[in-house]
Amino acid sequence: MQQLHTPHVVVVMGVAGTGKTTIGPLLAARLGVPYAEGDDFHPPANIAKMTAGTPLTDDDRWPWLDAIGGWAHGRAGLGGVVSSSALKRSYRDRLRAAAPGVVFVHLTGSRELIEDRMSHRQGHFMPTALLDSQFATLQPLEPDEAGVAVDVAGSPEEIAERAVNALTDLPEPAQ
To answer: What is the CA angle 96-97-98, rounded to 5?
Structure first.
């Protein structure tokens, strides 16, 4: 398994249960860059809301996205991988405002597959009941957004390999 090095800061995005927390570290290891868990940037109030089954509002998300954007900005030119649902274009725009060179790896899959994976997770604060709101909110990457979509079928290693291969086709970020 060859390790690649990238100056990209990659945001692994997708609805809950797509494997951001699993794929992100694998991708970071393959790219030879650090990984940051997006959930760690949430303030306690956000985690309490999600644990209670209450979807976050945009006002809840802005400080979280700003914290992730700050981390990504600090990694500009050095590379890094961070997870963030980044479900809406406006959220991705906010991340790009802080770190203009970020690229997105959108983990995609059927609702059935993702719900099945979520139902087998242990110790995560996001309940399966919020999956519908996640899919309702999701705005897939648009053609003018730097990023790739990667199917989450298969093993984590296969998914990470698909992500690495897709990223190699992206142009180097502007400095």
So the answer is: 90
DSSP structure class, residue 115: H
Residues 104-143 pLDDT 10s: 999 999 888 888 777 665 554 455 567 788 888 899 999 9
Q: What is the end-to-end Cα distance of the chain in Å, rounded?
A: 29
Closest CA to 11 of 101, 81, 64: 81
Amino acid at 68: I
Contacts 24+ apart (CB under 8 A), 69-73: 69/94, 69/95, 69/97, 69/98, 69/99, 70/98, 71/36, 71/41, 72/9, 72/11, 72/98, 72/99, 72/102, 73/98, 73/99
pTM of structure:
0.88
Other residues' Cβ atoms within 10 Å of the Cβ of residue 45: 11
